[in-house]
Structures are given as C-alpha cells and as structure tokens.
C-alpha cells in the first residue's frame, strides 16, 4: 500500500490526480449528504494526538459519506496519557485491523513512524512542523475553483505569485503549501519576522521577505497563517498587537496586491492578529470557507485512492 505522509513524496502528476479525483466529490457534496458505499465495510481510525476542528471533522465526514465506519481516538482520553509509547499505540491500532489510519501528532516524523509499523495506508493529518498534505491539497483545490469562477484557466498555477505570511518556522501548512504550489507552477513568497523564518528555506525555491508590504506587491494570493505560540519556547514571541502592526492583513495592506487578489487562511484564525475581519469576510476575495468545503472533498478522494489497492481496484501508482 501507499501512505500520504507529505507533498514532498508526491510527483506533480500525483498531486493533479488527487485534485482531479476530488472534483466529483465537490459536485456531489453540494447535492446530498451521502453518496455511495464506495468504502462500505472499511474501518477508518482517526488518531488525533493534537487538537483539531477542521481536519478531524472533515476526515470523519469524508469517511462516512463514502460509507466507511469511522472511529475517532482522541489522545487526551486514550492510554497515551498512561505512558504508552507511540510505537505501542501504533502496534495496538494495527492489531485492530483498520483499513486506513489518519494521524495528527505534535512531533515531526511521528506519522511516518506509525506508517512503518502498520499494515494499512496511513494519512498524515499534520505532524509537528513537518507536513499537512491534505491541507495543501484542499488549498490548491479551493484556489482552482476560485480562479475558475472568474473564468481563468486554473488546472495549475503557472504565472501566479502567492504570498504565505505568518509563523513560517512552525508551520507544516507553509511547508506543504510551498511544495504543492511550486509543483503546480506558482512563485511562492514566504513572509515572516526574521525569528519566525526557517534558515535556509531559500534552498526550497521560496522567495523570502520580512517586509509584508513588499511581499504583497502585485501578488495574486495572500495566504495568512497564525502565530503558533504553542510551539514557541525560548524564542521571540511578538505580542498580538505588534505582530498585527507589522504582519496583520488589513484592507489597506491588501491594496499592495493585485486589485482582485484572493485571501486564504487554513484556520483556525485569530481575527485582529494575522488577519482583520473585514479582510477575512471579503465577499468574492476571501476563500476561507471554500477551503473548508474543499477539505471534505479532498479527504474523500484521499481515502478512496489510498484504499483502492486493498479493495482490489487499480491503486494509486498502478497507473502512473
Ligand atoms: N487547518 C487545520 O488543520 O485546522 P484544524 O487544526 O482545526 O484541523
């Protein structure tokens, strides 16, 4: 079987394949609550060692819409609290014969560690500062749809300049999006205070900015990220007020970008810190709720594609 650990492990054609597979679910999700029993008889375990609203719920909804039995394990109520190691938890989950396991964990590499111990496909729902692949895929799908609504061809993002601004250092969303957007042809500008920018990130092909207005200049998209204070220890922590002063997306600041530039945010948002409400709620420009909508479709596609081989259907990679 194959796992979905990171965008870094995907070829461009595989990214496009997952986006194309998700399109059918975007259409059907708008028409009905449950579609078919594609995954009937399958058991999917969502093992979340970190808090989540969007990712956990959308994986659960995605599995149920396709007819699977979905079981959620919240670490706070699990035997992790009794000192069980991650490896032992993985062996335990494997003994239950799940057909797919979705994992969110606070440590980079934890999802791969579990994937190495279990017999079914593992989907990374965010591991530390490493990757959050389904987030980048849903962001790409939301952007594709927003551009199409404007009559622009958007199978890929060649020619687009996309600014990702926020706590890049701690952000798995930034890393997955950098890889995904670049694979789809976009120019990616990363913007953060110097203390929140990973050193050497230019080597991944990003343009690095510390001045947000300069980063926004003539940009097509502004993707905002929150300050991940829960991951900051012993380093510079800006106050919400000073951060907003320099890096908050205000309407005035957004005017530096293209006149119709789109606004994105993976959530959870801290309104008034990294983004003002009047920008987050901009009609036709902010696609933040559309990102959430696309999350269900992307996760349906990912669960379907990754379990194909076990279901006796030509699997992901078989046709590649
Ligand atoms: N974007 C995202 O991963 O949100 P949650 O933490 O609520 O899942």
Number of helices: 11
What is the count of β-strands? 9
The ligands bound in this entry are: phosphoric acid mono(formamide)ester
Strand content: 5-15%
Overall form: globular
Q: Sketch the topology as an H/E string, one letter per element.
A: HEHEHEHEHEHEEHEHHEHH
Low-confidence runs: none
User: What would the average pLDDT be, to the nearest integer?
Assistant: 93
For the largest sheet, list the strands in their spatial order: 7-6-5-8-9
Fraction of residues in helix: 25-40%
Walkthrough of the structure:
With 320 residues, this protein is of the alpha/beta class. Helices cover 36% and strands 14% of the residues. The chain contains 11 helices and 9 strands. The strands form 2 sheets. The chain has a 5-stranded parallel sheet with strand order 7-6-5-8-9. Helix 4 links the parallel strand 3 and strand 4. Helix 1 packs across helix 5, helix 1 crosses helix 11 and helix 2 crosses helix 11. The chain is globular and about 55 Å long. The protein starts with 11 loop residues before the first helix and ends in a 13-residue tail after the last helix. The relative contact order is 0.17. The model has no long low-confidence stretch (mean pLDDT 93).
